[in-house]
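Data availability (excerpt). The following record was deposited with the supplementary files.
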Amino acid sequence: MRNTVLTTFLIIFLTNVFYGQENDDVLTDIKDQMEVIDSYTEFDTFFLDPEEFLDKMPDNAAELNGYYEHERLKKIIRKVGTRSADVLTTFYFWNDQLIHVSYKQKPYLTSTSSNGQNVLDYSSTYTKYESKHYFNKGEEVATEKIGAPMAGIALEEEFVSYANKMKALLDNKFYNRAVYEALQGRWIFIQNTEDYIIFEGTIRFNFYNGKFANRLKTRIEDGVLECFFPMDDRIYRYKIENVDENILTLIDLFSKEEFAYAKVEN
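Predicted structure:
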């Protein structure tokens, strides 16, 4: 009996030692990879406008930048301004996998206006709360927290799924950058010049009879332009038959109807 208990204890002890050492090795690798990423000096930087990555506009400014090295995304820095603070989140990727997230809540400092009132200075912040998250093969392996989170700002938890979603949006824009660049601007529908579309970034704005109708998010895959409404399962697919500095031709893959547009404004 005693030997059985000792054997069981030894197995548990050695397993914990092995797991702890393995976890330490994983964290060391992640930190080494982060150091390599931070050492890059010639990133290709791509951005998403707020309309491209947010479903509703924030109280203050928002921005999201992706940093590419050798045609692969290495880092995303996202800033969203709330009423009281900037929320700054940095995502690190290695071999297209999320390895680290730094999440910070940075309250705005106050300054005195010309009439003597205290007002928020949106250009001056400090870090009140920070959490650091380390990931290996999609699983969180360690977390560090500094300070206390602010009331009224929901803490983010689903970092992996969100990071992959933002990566997909950036990759779509980055790898199809030549086509998106050609699409930018205002295009008049040749069959009815009162109808037109405007591309800004990856957003398509539709106008019918000269009036705004709706806005759709887009992505491009294998020469097909996919247009969809946020929070909607419907997707409209068009083969990009031609796009140059003068003419855009799209073929609806469902109805096979052809739509031709003339560029009138960049």
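Summary of structural features: The chain has a mean pLDDT of 91.
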